[in-house]
């Protein structure tokens, strides 16, 4: 008798464990995707800052070069 009752309870217990594992798995996936998204967004911000830095440096270089050329032309007269 007792074994028959246990046999009936075991599949139910496994079903509960499986449901819990699925819930835990989906929660882990959500956390991982959130974390990866944060890392990617931080990397994109970093790339954007570096891009602005390079543009700023290049435009400054071009401006100084143009200014020197303009001074040479003005002083040569």
TrEMBL record:
<dbReference type="InterPro" id="IPR027417">
    <property type="entry name" value="P-loop_NTPase"/>
</dbReference>
<dbReference type="InterPro" id="IPR000048">
    <property type="entry name" value="IQ_motif_EF-hand-BS"/>
</dbReference>
<protein>
    <submittedName>
        <fullName>Uncharacterized protein</fullName>
    </submittedName>
</protein>
<dbReference type="Pfam" id="PF00612">
    <property type="entry name" value="IQ"/>
</dbReference>
């Amino acid at each position: 008798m007792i074994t028959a009752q246990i046999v009936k309870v075991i599949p139910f217990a496994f079903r509960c464990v499986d449901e819990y594992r699925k819930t835990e798995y989906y929660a882990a996936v959500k956390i991982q995707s959130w974390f990866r998204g944060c890392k990617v967004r931080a990397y994109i911000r970093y790339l954007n800052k570096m891009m602005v830095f390079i543009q700023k440096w290049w435009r400054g270089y071009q401006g100084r070069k143009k200014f020197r050329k303009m001074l040479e032309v003005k002083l040569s007269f």
